[in-house]
Every structure is written in structure tokens, then in C-alpha cells.
Amino acid sequence: TLSSSSAASDVYKRQVRGSTFTVFQITDPHLGPFMSVERLKHICEKAISLDPDLVLLTGDYFTMQAHLAEDSLKHALQPLQSIKHKTFACLGNHDYEALSQVKKAFEDLGIPLLIDAETTVDTRAGKVQIVGSSFFFFNAREQLDTLLKSIPKREDCVARILLLHNPFHFNFVSDDEGFVVFSGHLHGGQVGLLNIGIDFTLMQIGKLFGKKVPDHGVWVKGLNRLYSHRGTGFYGYPLRFGVTGEESLIKVHI
């Protein structure tokens, strides 16, 4: 059962208590008319200034209609090269429209782009396992299940992170996996009342039909926790109203 939680301590819980590590997430910047290279570069510089344990990039780096220069993503993310040892990325759905360009940017910067792959990294709380998923356009449940079965839990790690662009696919993660999942994709709904303290977005209308939409915040399913980011930028209908973009430092409790 998928449920939401507003408690920061619910981001992750395991046997070991009292330790934390921090994450700065960048997702859905959608470089283009509403996100310039310089603005995204500034956001990266802000991330560095907060000294997080991890910087996680969870996809949708471009707005293809913008026709930006081929190396625009590389220039926008350039500041993160200085902390490439603790920066990790996955793909979003729009990244397949310019896959070679996205891959080249991360390769040139030396930042791991995890495409159905895993790695480990040391944090102040201990070693963390990070798995990056492709974006699954079809048969997502089967493909994600196959991926996660191929990457076993590492017993020497204090936490497991899954970079999964689409938060709807969180439902397909087995309850006993024990992942902290970082997603984007839904941009927090873009229109709602969050800015005045009311937990409502247009996507929450789905509740009237018995459908829970994990468009922002912390969600719980079994031993898994999802953080659904409101998005660094946006795409689609050209506005945000009552749901600002997000540039936050996330504290993960273990």
C-alpha cells in the first residue's frame, strides 16, 4: 500500500539508528526557454555550497524544442565536476530524445550516469549502494523487477538508493527491498496550493477516484521510502502556480 508521510525521519529507517547523510537532488531542469544554462549552473553552485554527502540527478535535462548548443548540458553542470566523486545521475524520458548528447556530457564531466547499473559511495553515515534505472516506457513492472533482482543488496552498505525518474514506478519496487527512491518527472504537479501550506495539487484530484499520485514529498511502501521532488525546472504547460520549484537539502535518517 502506498501512503504519504510528512515526517522527515520517515525518509529512511533501518536497524542502525542515529546516523544521517544529506542529498541535494536536481531533477527535470529541462534546459530551454524556462531554464538557462547560467541558471542551472548557479543551482549546481548552490548544491556545492551546501556540502551534501551526495548530489543526485534524476533525469530530463533538456527541453528539445530549445535547440540549445550541443555542449549546453556539459556547461550547465560544469560546477559538479569538482565533486564528481559524490555526484550520480540517471535518465529521464526526455533524455532519450538526445541520448548521445546526454551521455557525452556526463562522460566529459566524469560524473557516473547509471543506466541499469549500480555503484557504492562513502558518506558520513557509512557506505551507500546506489542503483540507477533506465526510464521504462513499456512493461515497467517486469523490467524494473528484472533489474532489481540482478543487483542484490550489499551487506556492507548502510543504505540503498534507487534513482528512478518516474515516481509511479515506485509501486513496482518490492516491499522488502529497503530502498530510498529519488524521483522527479511530475514537477510537483506545477499547479496547486502548496505555497500557502495546503497539501493540494491538481494531480491530487486522482484521490477522488481512489488513485494516489506521488507528485511531491515523502511516500512509504513497505520498507521503501520515496522522495518525489517538485522539480528544478518544468515542462509542458508553461507555468507554475502555487507549487514552486525545489532546491532543497534532504536529510536521510538511517
What value does the average pLDDT take?
Answer: 90
Order of SSEs, N→C? EEHEHEHEEHEEEEE
Rg value: 17 Å
Structural class determined from secondary elements: alpha/beta
Roughly how many Å apart are the termini? Answer: 22 Å
Provide the spatial order of strands within the biggest beta sheet. 1-9-10-8-7-6-5
- Count of beta strands: 11
What is the approximate shape?
A: globular
Number of helices: 4
For the biggest sheet, the summary is:
7 strands, mixed
Strand content: 15-25%
Relative helix content? 10-25%
Q: Which residue ranges are poorly predicted, with pLDDT under 50 across at least 5 consecutive positions?
A: 1-16
Question: How would you describe what is shown here?
Answer:
This protein has helices spanning 37-49, 72-77, 99-109, 140-150; strands spanning 3-5, 20-26, 54-57, 87-89, 117-123, 126-132, 159-163, 179-183, 217-221, 224-228, 249-253. It is an alpha/beta fold and 254 residues long. The strands form two sheets. The chain has a seven-stranded mixed sheet, with no helix packed on it. A hairpin with a 2-residue loop joins strand 9 (217-221) and strand 10. The longest helix has 13 residues, at 37-49. Residues 1-16 have low confidence and may be disordered.
